[in-house]
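FAQ

Q: What does a record look like?
A: Structure on top, sequence underneath. For example:
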């Protein structure tokens, strides 16, 4: 069962219930990243009925003017084509693209969630989906900044400033983040297990997020946490197996790790939470 399966010729049972990606961090200058997601969107409708994008699709999205950037045109066309061929594409806001609005999404076939966190049943498992910054409650500076930046007035301002200004502000935020994030001690970028447990206690059996840019799978008494690998590194995504008889008959593993243009393998099994002892 651990044998790799090529993603471009899926055997019939390997039609999944859902595909999950996070942290694509696309910019107009990232031609390889844009091409990789475009290719993924070309293949995705044959593999699953729905795709979840758990935030930070764009490295920075401020005003919606980004929709007119020529560098994004092939990607946005690929989103429209995937949606037109039946793929339901859902987006949850990340910390870099929370200004990607429902109108921005609707224009390209993406359903943008109004909530930061969503409950859904994926492959038969009640699942809480979110970007993941909400689970880093040890980072007090970030949580305070987030409350200000996402307030109504700050969002309104970002959308109504003269066009050049938001981009300049965005570049400054990006530079600040590039300087500060590597310096943050590991504890502040650590997912707090109690935050995961709180969401499992609310009824989810699995919590899925991204944000910290490392694949992790924790086993907790009430369920599990799955942290998606960052798509921006190697084009990795996770596929959730469905409940159709063929899959059940083969006892397919429920979660698979894929790479665009590469192998699809069962996800490593869950371990004890990181941060408990390290
Ligand atoms: Mn993030």
């Amino acid at each position: 069962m651990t044998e790799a399966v090529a993603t471009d010729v899926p055997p019939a049972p390997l039609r999944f219930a859902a595909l999950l990606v996070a942290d694509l961090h696309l910019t107009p200058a990232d031609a390889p990243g844009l091409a990789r997601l475009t290719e993924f969107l070309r293949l995705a409708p044959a593999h699953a009925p729905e795709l979840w994008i758990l935030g930070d699709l764009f490295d920075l999205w401020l005003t919606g003017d980004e929709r007119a950037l020529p560098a994004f045109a092939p990607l946005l066309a690929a989103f429209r084509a995937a949606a037109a061929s039946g793929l339901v594409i859902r987006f949850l806001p990340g910390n870099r693209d929370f200004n990607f609005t429902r109108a921005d999404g609707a224009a390209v076939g993406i359903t943008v969630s109004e909530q930061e966190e969503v409950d859904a049943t994926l492959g038969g498992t009640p699942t809480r989906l979110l970007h993941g910054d909400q689970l880093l409650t040890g980072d007090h500076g970030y949580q305070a900044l987030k409350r200000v930046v996402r307030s109504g007035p700050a969002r309104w301002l970002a959308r109504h400033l003269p066009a050049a200004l938001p981009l300049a502000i965005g570049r400054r935020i990006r530079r600040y983040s590039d300087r500060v994030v590597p310096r943050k001690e590991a504890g502040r970028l650590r997912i707090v297990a109690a935050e995961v447990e709180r969401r499992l206690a609310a009824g989810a059996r699995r919590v899925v997020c991204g944000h910290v840019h490392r694949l992790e799978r924790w086993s907790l008494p009430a369920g599990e946490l799955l942290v998606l690998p960052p798509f921006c590194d190697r084009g990795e995504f996770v596929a959730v197996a469905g409940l159709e008889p063929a899959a059940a008959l083969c006892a397919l593993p429920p979660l698979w790790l894929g790479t665009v243009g590469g192998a699809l393998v069962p996800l490593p099994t869950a371990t004890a939470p990181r941060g408990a002892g390290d």
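Q: Is there anything notable about this one?
A: The longest strand covers residues 117-122.
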